[in-house]
Predict the structure of diguanylate cyclase.
Amino acid sequence: MGVGAAAIWGLVQFSRSERWVEHTYEVLAQIERVEAEVRRAESEARAYRLTSDPAHYAQYLAAAPLVRQRADALVALVADNPAQTSRAHDIGTRARLRLRELESLIQLQRTHGAEAAIAATRSGEGARLMQALIEAESAMRDAESELLRERKQASDARARWVIGIVVVGTLLPIALLGLLMAGLSRENRRVRELEREAREAMIELERIAVRRDRLSEQRRILGTYTGLLQSCQNLGEAMALTGRVVDELLPDAGGRCYVMRASQNLVESAGTFGSPATPSEDLMPPEHCWALRRGQVHRTDTGHTGLRCAHVGPTAHSDEWTLCVPLAAHGTTLGLLHVSGRASTGSDEAQADAVESIGEQLSQTMANLQLRESLRVQSLRDPLTQLYNRRYLEENLFRELQRCERRGLPLTVMMLDVDHFKRFNDENGHAAGDALLARVGEVLVDLTRGEDIACRYGGEEFTIILPEANLEVATRRAEEIRAAIGSLSVIHMRRVLGPVTVSIGVACFPEHGGSPERLLAAADSALYRAKGHGRNRVVISAA
Ligand SMILES: Nc1nc2c(ncn2[C@@H]2O[C@H](COP(=O)(O)OP(=O)(O)OP(=O)(O)O)[C@@H](O)[C@H]2O)c(=O)[nH]1
């Protein structure tokens, strides 16, 4: 706005200066016109003097008033400048003087002839008057030229000022516009940055919400798992449940649950689940797994530099990860939980943590189940021979008998007693007697089938139930047992003990009895008879 006003003011001033310059030129032109008219009148007067042609006289008469007019116009033109007005008056006066001298010459010619007029010119008066006029004109012209110079300078200065104003007026808005644009661009960038940060914050929030939902879902699954785990009756159930839960938590991964054998020298797969990214051995020594060696969780993937376990197959995918969680409780290694998957399927640290929690829960459960199992075994087995005890025998004989009866199958009971065991004890010591009984127990396990039930009935007396075995088969088996025990050589305290013999009584369902009591009594009676007939023999019930 200010720049515009200054520019307009500058233009007005410039135009005013220019008008003054034009005015100066006008003044100079007017001086020339005055002189030109004077010279025209002078020329016509001279021509008339020389030719006496009235046409020239008429021309002179026409030129003379113009001289006065031009001189008056010159005075009017410089009316604003007193010095120049005075000079203009001087020019007018001298021009009129020159005209008057010409007129006097013309009158002289008209009255005395051309010769007289020509003679009059020789006085030089005309040349002096003309010279005076030229000098007056020159003085005025010089003064006007000085004015012209000053006015041109003023005009140029104003022109420069206007140009300056215009340039400033043009560049300033451009500069301001540039600054404004830079500010806007900065603001725009800031807004975009804020938008980006807001977007990232939203994405992070969503991620956190998804993670929170996933974690609460994991907690729910783990809570249910822990509850169900406590109700598992055996290791098989616990392993199957664990497989299902790991599958639920890591649907794109898979693996195996392993159980440590009682010998502690092999870890055996007890169940598989999901789709593992890489296979893992069924049966392996514990040394094949870094987690079992070190007793701590072992991971391999791009973020973990852990060594690959020997039980895991070769890498099939670049984004593959493996996780081995040792299952241990009370300082005893119970097994291993092994999972493998691929990072691209979205499994994360939280899921790995969940698998570790599963490992901890499972370890506790395995320890409890093993404890329960050992208590159960203890309550059912004889600790010296590891054979079933009498309580177990009585419970199962009834059940097996019913099963065989329902299916129309035979069942045989053998009663076995070590001959002269008292003497053996007396000669070799009670500990040697124990060693012998334990060895006899092993023979009985070796020579019976899985479904047969070998028990220590009490003392040096054993009972074997052979479901589905008839008298003939059972007698053959009894002979084999008798022969095997007869050829035993037991080494105790670096001494070879024995040999010993056994007597066996055999009773068969349905021939010798239909109830557990009757069968046991029949077998015992047969054993008694075997003893009576000299021992080291098999006697079939006579009932
Ligand atoms: N070392 C040991 N001895 C036992 C155990 N249970 C019972 N005995 C002994 O076994 C012996 C059984 O002796 P007896 O019943 O007289 O029978 P036996 O000497 O084998 O004679 P026969 O049966 O007639 O051939 C007793 O001396 C018991 O002390 C045991 O767990 N360990």
About this structure: The pocket of guanosine-5'-triphosphate is lined by residues 417-423, 425, 430, 433-434, 437, 459-460, 531, 535 (CB under 6 Å). Residues 2-176 form a domain with the Four Helix Bundle (Hemerythrin (Met), subunit A) fold (CATH 1.20.120).
